[in-house]
Design goal:
GO terms for molecular function: ATP binding; ATP hydrolysis activity; transmembrane transporter activity. By secondary structure, the protein is α/β, with parallel strands linked by helices. The protein has eight helices and ten strands. The protein is about 35% helix and about 25% strand. Bound molecules: adenosine-5'-triphosphate.
Amino acid sequence: MTTTQPPFATTGESSAAARATALTKVYGEGETRVVALDGIDVEFSRGQFTAIMGPSGSGKSTLMHCMAGLDAITSGSATIGDVELSRLKDKHLTRLRRDRIGFVFQSFNLVPTLTAIENITLTMDIAGRKPDSQWLDQIVDTVGLRDRLKHRPGQLSGGQQQRVACARALAGRPEIVFADEPTGNLDSRSGAEILSFLRESARSFGQTVVMVTHDAVAASYADRVLFLADGRLVDELVAPSADRVLERMKQFDGKGRTS
Ligand SMILES: Nc1ncnc2c1ncn2[C@@H]1O[C@H](COP(=O)(O)OP(=O)(O)OP(=O)(O)O)[C@@H](O)[C@H]1O
């Protein structure tokens, strides 16, 4: 069997793990036309943990979906490493998502019939990639799952399930991890563990992480917070505290516009 090099193999020279340039996303047309993203320019540097905040409908999920190749963009560009997503055919986009991007969802999205360790290595098993056992060990220990690896999701608490999902996201050493409200279904203690892990993965492992959240405390774990309103990037806080994030959020009115 011959294996072909994926078209998204890159030199690794780009300093940013991901980048949006004049990224625009329009849904519908005519009366139902919605400009969800309106010319976004943003860079996600390697090893940086970024939180995305903004009022409901401001475009947070759309930005994440477009950057992760889950939604097609209308104009501009979205790149992972040096790869322009809009140039990829579906098959290659699927492969890029599988091999280069890690996902953590609010609802964990684990396979109920598989054990924790089988869930963690599932993506690599599907890709036919052999997990790096030393790396796996390190992740499993960092998330504190060593004694739960043979448990199925139904035998784990929500926090433990989300730790499995985090380990799964990092297992293949992806270019970038996208986390969509990862603590939305967790109590504050379990949430804090997940957020500490995401922060630690950026600091200790150089993992690039982008997280959408509504929670100022969650955002304060990030290196920086981006604020969206009406599909535009309107502000950024570096080394945020929960108080500063809350203060900034108060400047949005109920319709999601900045005051
Ligand atoms: N599939 C779709 N079809 C049409 N409009 C959509 C679609 N997805 C999102 N939108 C619209 O795009 C805009 C941005 O939505 P998006 O879900 O990205 O916002 P959000 O900031 O993630 O909101 P929330 O905080 O409520 O999850 C909204 O006006 C939304 O109604």
